[in-house]
Amino acid sequence: xxxxxxxxxxxxxxxxxxxxxxxxxxxxxxxxxxxxxxxxxxxxxxxxxxxxxxxxxxxxxxxxxxxxxxxxxxxxxxxxxxxxxxxxxxxxxxxxxxxxxxxxxxxxxxxxxxxxxxxxxxxxxxxxxxxxxxxxxxxxxxxxxxxxxxxxxxxxxxxxxxxxxxxxxxxxxxxxxxxxxxxxxxxxxxxxxxxxxxxxxxxxxxxxxxxxxxxxxxxxxxxxxxxxxxxxxxxxxxxxxxxxxxxxxxxxxxxxxxxxxxxxxxxxxxxxxxxxxxxxxxxxxxxxxxxxxxxxxxxxxxxxxxxxxxxxxxxxxxxxxxxxxxxxxxxxxxxxxxxxxxxxxxxxxxxxxxxxxxxxxxxxxxxxxxxxxxxxxxxxxxxxxxxxxxxxxxxxxxxxxxxxxxxxxxxxxxxxxxxxxxxxxxxxxxxxxxxxxxxxxxxxxxxxxxxxxxxxxxxxxxxxxxxxxxxxx
Length: 473
Ligand SMILES: [Zn+2]
Hints:
By secondary structure, the protein is of the alpha/beta class. 36% of the residues lie in helices and 19% in strands. The protein contains 17 helices and 17 strands. Helix 5 (139-155) packs across helix 17 and helix 13 (347-362) packs across helix 14 (370-377). The radius of gyration is 21 Å and the shape is globular. The two termini are 41 Å apart. Residues 105, 107, 164, 264, 287, 338 line the site of zinc ion (ZN).
């Protein structure tokens, strides 16, 4: 096992990310680890003054002109006025200060395939492109793609992400994805999955999942889960389709390790299969509430299952978007980006899409306030990932994951209610400042340390090589 481990690290050491991979094995080395695309800025001592503060914590509330003090990566104080001697002042006037967005399902490994895609050519849409090229990924490709996706997350104000890694082609690929997450400075969960094309009767690499659990033990920023292949038998396609017996084998091991599970359910029948097999539970996150039956959502509510909805992609898929039924049944529903290969990272548009679909489907009879949508995109996403003790609201003692959103762009006009502005008007380019765990990753709409051009150049190099390997024309 140890020899195996050393081998994998040696593989990484032969790549551009090797130094970072080796250095960042220990938490103490993590902060200083060099990375492809820049080092992380230090955690700073600062106070935001004069912003419209939305704490997303009901016990604290909001402040039309408020202050937030951050020190050593934590939120120290929040209020109309806070005492922060010596702290750097960030002028928040004309901006909304709120928790960073929490994405709850995103296939970061597909990110750099966007230039290969064509929305209007069936041979070049998301599934055929990601499958054809995904079979040839090296660990370095995985690193570069995930790194690029995480950079796009930062630029759009996402500070926590659920990296749904359903193309882990080897333990070294898993290490590379985790390394990219560490190098990004973002918080998140790594959901360990199978490689594309793996036979449905072969179980996932459960020994390496256990090994990864040990590697991530005590990591202050990252947690671990598994992403399962589909179980409904009718939507597996290129992503696999396992039966209830295989799901039991894999999920039982995950549960023994205390790991949460996530699964796509865009087709029909998955919930019935899972319920019949006794596999539903509060540690299960399902993705894409489409095509479910009333009996399904009752079973989900009974077992405390939660759902992630990906509004931008789901709105273009067959079936009704049933997040409304899920909310009515009492399920927790959070928001996800899914991928930035076919879609884009835009949490504002995600919230707006949910509002639009609700009006389209119910005529607005189901009350879905703009504040509820912002809750779904922040604190309820954190709850979904089991991270609400660390992030999702601006609460003293939590880690400092926050963003400042400008309100002075022409498309914003003169804003009234801040929640209304976030849902109706805002877009990612309005995100001025992004702070994750007290590190200012983006300021005045620009990366503070990241060399985004290098990430793009590395990505282009990987994509060119993958196209050659896959004979893609
Ligand atoms: Zn997905």
